[in-house]
Design goal:
The structure is a homodimer of 471-residue chains. With 471 residues, the first copy, chain A, is an alpha+beta fold. The first copy, chain A, contains 17 helices and 17 strands. The interface between A and B is large, with 36 and 36 residues.
């Protein structure tokens, strides 16, 4: 807005904190935008001041989000984890920041037990658990290999993974194939039906998708995300349209792959019967997006948010691979069957990479039907997205939210804005049972703990450059 | 709202016409709902009074919409028109009310020429046109056979049709298979590529879908409509999610049908490449819905809105098969390529059956991205739906609009409300070129002419019963 426009236009006020003031102005017909605000937490004022005063920050954050928004994500292959990310037998990937067996929550332990059984490294769950506790096997975050995993995010060497690339950088990212909902490994279940399904996914689903994807050449996953946010999907807990568009794109080549019609039909039924199938394609696409913004000195933009069921961890562009963690909160939402709040495990999974990339909970406004899955009312979904503009750096024109007149998705969480406003990123997520073996108990809403952002602001402050003083 | 609630709740005012009054109340914090209103057209006051005073009307309208909202629609077969609706060679169905060759507009003539060529009843377009003008062939509205056809809606005996049934009543409805956009028969194009595509649809697409549908048993089209209105489709000009869900449901059986993989892959590419494919399934589902409400004596609910490119015609529940017509308006909207308003034909097609059933333009609020196709701004889409509640009888809970907190689609246009308020039904539609052979030129918004409703109110008034007088 030019100065002349500013002077001739009706006043528009951004009110921080003092809602009585804004109510008074609203009564006088002034256009008021309330900005949620709470005083910065104890001990964060000084590092926050240093980070905000860092002369590199504005440019660094702009660079980070520009790179993020320019990233592409194309599915180019489907193959076993030992090929895709060089995963050794007995070594297991998991969601979130690093964690040892002793501190793992129930669903992560359950998924590890299931993966050990699936790999034939133990004959019974008891034996698997004993070997896991004894330290026979090793663990590593998915993120450390450029991969992501929903919920427990456990990947073993024989499991098949989607392989995506960002054509701009050549960077790659990976994710396992989605098993569906309910009693599934990623929610901590490991009963026989879980292992049987994983075997079918390895023997039939993976190879058929590999042949289909290779024959297709590549499938533009970022373009599907851009479409799905115009079709009621927010890309974290609603992936219906995304799943259907992926089927549309891969099926012609799958049909012509030479696979038996019975197997192809089973693949179509499996994917078509699982509205969440696309999540495991959207997540590595989001990982490619946020990775493109990593490593910009002085940038306070968040590049990873991930949870292992015990800790919530974040990484920022300016601080590289360093994790800043805090205790994971427990989601609140809607429960399946007879499950209730007492059954829910704390927040778990790498799927918050969707919010880190500006979709998921950040574009709930575009998926109002999500409230039937995660709880709340439709106006809450709109409000959640509006609030996220307060803590982000840019609006991604590629992910336009139709109901907000195609306003771009709020993208690039700024640690400084989070600490300054006290507004925490809005994540919507599945809920795992807190006991190993239970599986999914519901879906809901959750925020990261403030500690992650306080840790990150302190680290950013340590590296901050002093403001340039004019002599 | 009970009387006690009414007295204790804040006042809520419905303001008709006098907007200055409502602005004054709004300034005082009163919740005001503006109702658009214009004085009834000349000559309608007396018949309107008679219809409104008809003691049967409230109950009759409630009965009509209850039956409409209870209707189901399942796809049970795909077969040639000569089997499906007994169509004879040389007899052609078309959209809208009855019309003879002399009064047909360009796109309807073009589609007739193409259909004559496709049936091998002439060797050149010139010969086809001469035979058509000579009266060699006969014409009949799709609606007279319980069928519906988008745009020109021309169906000839060899073309394949979807066959849907309402399980509650056993009633059936039919529609041709969608050809895609651009140079296609239903937009009045008849060049060689159009005929070639129709041949492939008859030789490959139709039989493969028949085998898939028969092996599947039935596909619940009404359930897909309920889902698609939660996925950014309004079911008239956006059918993306609907098309994908139909593919999901029919493909497993298609894959196992024994058809060659090359043909199946071509079918998947054809359907997957045409976001409008589902329109020809949604339309007969809507026809089954509105037909369920037909024939209730004293009901002023609209059961058909249809256009032949020259006339717009409606039917009402209380007046049976009688058409009430007026000159079709020309849509306003967005144009393809170099086309402009001068290229557009007046409103054409049976696709306004979607609005008659409460979707299409009536639920534009659920499909804000539609404005990129038909023109206007996102708030207009919300406003269009809100306005339609003023002229409808009920809200269909099955078609919930998420952004309006799952408010049901405005369903059952009441002729009396249309005449009383002057608010005309909102239709969004494709635009055909006004010359035969051109094809599609754009998409936009249009209203029926008021004459249809004035004619209907007069006919309803003639049959109206006198109010019961208490002696």
């Amino acid at each position: 807005m030019s100065t002349r426009e500013l002077l001739s236009a009706p006043p528009s006020v951004v009110a921080v904190g003092a809602s009585l003031l804004s109510e008074g102005m609203r009564a006088q017909g002034v256009d008021v935008t309330d900005v949620q605000w709470a005083p910065p937490a104890d001990g964060t004022s000084e590092p926050l001041s240093r980070v905000v005063a860092d002369p590199r920050r504005a440019r660094a954050n702009a660079t980070a989000v520009e790179r993020m928004m320019a990233a592409g994500a194309e599915l180019i292959d489907v193959r076993p984890a030992h090929e895709a990310v060089g995963l050794e037998r007995g070594h297991f990937l998991h969601a979130g920041p690093p964690i040892e067996w002793e501190r793992m929550s129930g669903p992560l332990r359950g998924a590890m037990i299931g993966a050990v059984l699936f790999e034939g490294l133990a004959r019974t769950p008891e034996e698997a658990e004993a070997e896991l506790a004894r330290g026979t096997f090793t663990f590593e975050p998915c993120h450390h290999r450029g991969a992501v995993g929903p919920m427990a995010g456990v990947v073993s060497s024989s499991m098949w993974m989607f392989e995506l690339t960002d054509p701009a950088s050549g960077r790659r990212s990976w994710c396992s194939l989605n098993e569906g909902l309910g009693k599934v490994l990623r929610y901590g279940a490991y009963e026989e039906s879980v292992i049987t399904r994983l075997r079918w996914m390895t023997e039939v689903l993976g190879p058929i998708l590999r042949d289909g994807v290779r024959a297709t050449g590549s499938i533009d996953i970022m373009a599907i995300i851009a479409q799905m946010v115009q079709m009621g999907d927010e890309g974290h807990n609603r992936n219906r349209a995304g799943t259907l568009m992926f089927m549309r794109d891969v099926l012609p080549a799958v049909v012509e792959s030479g696979a038996s019609p019975a197997d192809v039909a089973e693949v179509v039924r499996f994917i078509g019967g699982n509205d969440h199938f696309f999540l495991n394609l959207g997540m590595p696409a989001c990982k490619l997006l946020t990775s493109a913004g990593a490593g910009v000195p002085g940038s306070s933009v968040v590049t990873v948010m991930a949870r292992n069921g015990t800790d919530f961890g974040i990484q920022t562009s300016g601080t590289g691979d360093q994790w800043f963690t805090g205790p994971a909160n427990t989601p609140e939402g809607l429960f399946l069957g007879d499950f209730g709040p007492q059954d829910a495990n704390p927040d778990i999974g790498d799927s918050a990479i969707t919010e880190t990339a500006g979709i998921g909970g950040f574009v709930m406004a575009t998926a109002p039907a999500i409230v039937r899955f995660v709880g709340g009312e439709v106006p809450d979904a709109l409000e959640a997205t509006r609030l996220m503009y307060q803590i982000t750096t840019a609006e991604n024109p590629r992910f336009g939210v139709p109901i907000l007149s195609f306003r771009g998705a709020p993208t690039g969480i700024d640690v400084a804005k989070v600490v300054e406003t006290g507004v925490l990123p809005q994540i919507n997520t599945g809920m795992a049972g807190r006991l190993a073996g239970v599986g999914q108990v519901g879906a809901g809403l959750v925020n990261p703990p403030a500690e992650c952002f306080e840790g990150a602001i302190a680290a950013l402050a340590e590296q901050a450059e002093d403001p340039v003083r004019i002599a």
